[in-house]
Amino acid sequence: MLFGRRKKNPIKLADKGVMEWKYATCSYCSVGCSIEIGLNSEGRAVTTRGVGGADVNRGKLCIKGLSEAQIFEASGRGSEPLIRGKIFEPWQSCAWDEALDKTADEFKRIQEKYGRDAVAVVSTGQIMTEEFYTLGKLVRGVIGTNNYDGNTTLCMASAVSGYKRSFGSDGPPGCYDDFEHTECLLAFGSNLPEQHPIIYWRLKEALDKRKFPVIVVDPRVTMFAQFADIHLAITPGTDLVLLNALAHVILDEGLQDVEYLEQHCNGFAQMRELVQLYNPVYAAKICGIDEDTIRNVARLYAKADSAMSIWTMGINQSTHGSDGVCAINNLNLITGNMGKPGGTSLSITGQCNAMGTREWSSCSGLPGYRQLENENHRKEVAAVWGVDPALFPSERGLAQTDIFPAIEAGEIKALWLVATNPMTSMANSPRIRKTLEKLEFCVVQDSYQDAESVQYAHVFLPGAVWAEKEGCFTNTERRVNITRASQPPFAQSKPDGWIFTQLARRWQRGRAMQWAETPEQTFEEMKRLSCADGVNSPGANGSPRMLDISGMTYDKIERARGLQWPFRESDAQQGKVVGTARLYSDGEFQFPDGKARLLALPYIENNELPCGDFPFWLNSGRVVEHFHTRTKTGKIGNCNKFSPTAYMEINPDAAAEQGVEHMQYVRLVSRRGDAIVLAQLTQRVPYNMVFIPFHFHECVNRLSLGLLDPHSRQPAFKQSAVRIEACDQAEAARTNAAMRTF
Ligand code: SF4
Questions:
Q1: How many Å lie between the centroid of ligand 1 and the Cα of residue 572?
Q2: Cα 33 from Cα 246, distance rounded (Å)
Q3: Choice from 62, 66, 479, 481 to test ligand 1 binding pocket (greatest atom count within 8 A of CB)
Q4: What is the CB < 6 Å shell around ligand 1?
Q5: How many alpha carbons fall within 13 Å on the CB side of residue 582?
Q6: Does residue 715 have a cis peptide bond before it, meaning omega lies within 30 degrees of 0?
Q7: CA-based radius of gyration for the chain
Q8: Which of 214, 230, 591, 656 has the most CB atoms in a 10 Å sphere around its CB?
Q9: CA distance 96 to 98
Q10: Which DSSP symbol is given to 336?
């Protein structure tokens, strides 16, 4: 018998006629891959390739990056500004001036009638950092509303909150290079191969050279869990109990790093007292991990010379998200795993520029990790912007998840959505729909006119996408990387930064302020605010400001394929060509006394739990082919081909009991609403859980509850209760086809 091919038939790459390659940073996830866009003789993007010399991805790209050239001319691009009197009426095309005048006039009218904060702004993690900075300048310095947030509250707010509570500042302390040094990796709620494929490849590369234990904590047998040495199939929402129990074992057995604790941490006594309550026998009953495994994992972690923790939404999207992050930080502080190669707490961010909005957008503070609560910070920013510091509030306003209830309560009358799509991304979408219908005025600014939230807008502003403009993103490991404009904006769409400055000039205050003409000029303004130079205050502990980008220039960033902050003017003067790989290597944290805080974190059960009427946990997450609400990937050939529709994973035993067959449609019902999904029978989920990818409109978020974390205001997307009902197969197939709007 013959095996293999009889004839050689090599795969041939089609000649795409590339005449020029332009440098960029991938615009999907926070891994931050360096990418080149191939342009043909007409200057049209025809392909992409990874950049070999880039430290992040070393020439590789995932399916999304490989097909990214298709986003420029994908269907649904917004080609011109649109306007209408009432939602659901037909759109009228209009000139930019008319759309911007209408937007400014409506904001002014509503603020005069109801007060400054009656206008709310919800932005994104998708636009350039320079655009975030400009948006912040417009919202805080011109429009003057305090109800301003980013959609990053749905994904990273708990990490931000946890970093601030433990270390005194936001800022992921570690980097991808830590995989090369660690002796133990503990991953919480992170399906790395599907969510962040190139980071996973970096991990595999490190494991190929040197074996170390990989422990994955996840209620589901994810792809990552299948590759792990130990999989802890935890009960949803109980990570805090497991983390307290791990700390309990470490302290009980004297495995802590006593010297590190004494020199660099506060709060040890209170934390020890709390974790004493979480012995593994007690914890096992709540978190579902047996006591021996808890002890083994604690010993493995504490005895490793360096150990690191990574996490994503399994921790963040929880009513205990912020506490979970602090508990991870506790674990690393008591074992002395902070700021050293292979020893860190590294949140893996979601969107390509979720970090950029955290750093520079002013949505929860002021630029450069400044705080609204700090008078000096308000004065510094006001001086650079040329505004009265009294314009700034002394505390942050509503988070995105509180803005929608405030619309419902009639406190907010106008909403500006910038590159975000709450009709698909927010929990309990039936309620969000009614909320959006209540607005007196809604403006949506997006590259895609068919994003579901546009249905509720009175004005649509078409934004340019990704490499139709220039600017920087910051990735998960604090690496600032650049995208060069490879082509002009589609049709009449405009760069978001242009839209912000044009809108600003419609206020007298805005006309009196200086607005940069180019993204590079904006970057120079940000650099001035980033360093402690006698005008700006130093970091909270008296040391130089942490988020210092003063040594960077666009050319240096491109040459280095990204620079990790801090990268100071003095670094540049010394001829350094790489940034700072790790934070807190000197053991100096961002609290006034320079010490980190260990926190006592009691677990309080406060979620919706499965019950007789709704017997299944509803879990959600990503698939590798899609990004967020599919505004982009839903139109891209292979992404859509490989993942065309929503589905539900169900355990075969549960399916048999419910009378559900593989590839049969079912109706899922929660206390919020219902959704039709296609059943996939798999052992990846336990008997009492179903899993649905979150990307699809009119699906998982019709069901989800989304209770909020008290510190971060992030919703618990992954912990709701549902039941399964039979449905008419032909009707379900028709409904499902109609839902696939792209
Ligand atoms: Fe883009 Fe993320 Fe894929 Fe890299 S891993 S190519 S950044 S989507």
A1: 29
A2: 34
A3: 62
A4: 26, 28-29, 31-33, 57, 61-62, 64-65, 196-198
A5: 22
A6: no
A7: 25
A8: 214
A9: 5
A10: T
Rounded Cα distance between 130 and 128, Å, is 5
What type of residue sits at position 480? V
Residue with tokens 């929880």: 318
For ligand 1, the distance from its centroid to the CA atom of residue 287, given in whole angstroms, is 33
Q: Which residue has the tokens 């649509």?
A: 460
Q: Which atom of ligand 1 is nearest to the CA of 57?
A: 4
SS3 content of the chain, % helix, strand, coil (to 5): 35, 15, 45
CB 651 within 8 A of CB 90: no
Tokens representing 306 are 């360096």
Contacting residues for 317 by C-beta, under 8 A, at least 6 apart = 154, 155, 158, 714, 715, 716, 717, 718
pLDDT for 93-111, tens place per residue?
Answer: 999 999 999 999 999 999 9
Read off the tokens for 544: 């130089």
pLDDT the model gives residue 3:
58
Residue 742 CA to residue 736 CA, distance in Å, equals 12
CA distance 20 to 482: 18
Domains and CATH numbers, the chain: 14-71 (2.20.25.90), 82-155+353-564 (3.40.50.740), 157-347 (3.40.228.10), 616-740 (2.40.40.20)
Q: List, for residues 399-447, the tens digit of each pLDDT value.
A: 999 999 999 999 999 999 999 999 888 888 888 999 999 999 999 999 9
